[in-house]
Amino acid sequence: MLRRLLAGRGRSDHTVPAPTKEKARLLLVDDDGILLGFLAETLRDHGYEVVTATDGAEGLDKALTGRPDAIVLDRTMPGLDGFEVLQRLKRDRRTAGIPVLMVTSCTASEEVAYGLALGAVEYLTKPILSGDVVRQVARMLGSSFAPAPMATGSVVPQSR
User: What is the distance between the alpha carbons of residues 16 and 20, in angstroms, rounded to a whole number?
Assistant: First the structure.
């Protein structure tokens, strides 16, 4: 590789590789402030840039304007619930390709199947381990972004 780079010195036709994005931008949407704060802190500690929203409408707006690389979305929220937000995200060409991780206390298999059918990449049920969320986010983003090494997860606190 070094030889090829040095061989290209002085030539005007060589190309410089484009810089890679170093930090993935995540949008966390949950009406549980304790959970939201803990997940945001955990994901920031793993090298992610994190934006938060406390309800579905705010989350949808931030997804459309901020264009995150991935979204962690609560299923049960007042107003626009997670399913409605997910449907709107997947119908809009600007956000349809953003991977979404649903996080919820609903464990009914029909709900999980419905969320996945709407386009969620994964569905985690509460209580969750912080490491599970970090691993799922890393998996959704693929090799484009490399999170910091992670320790075993702790149980994420919830206010409900």
Answer: 12
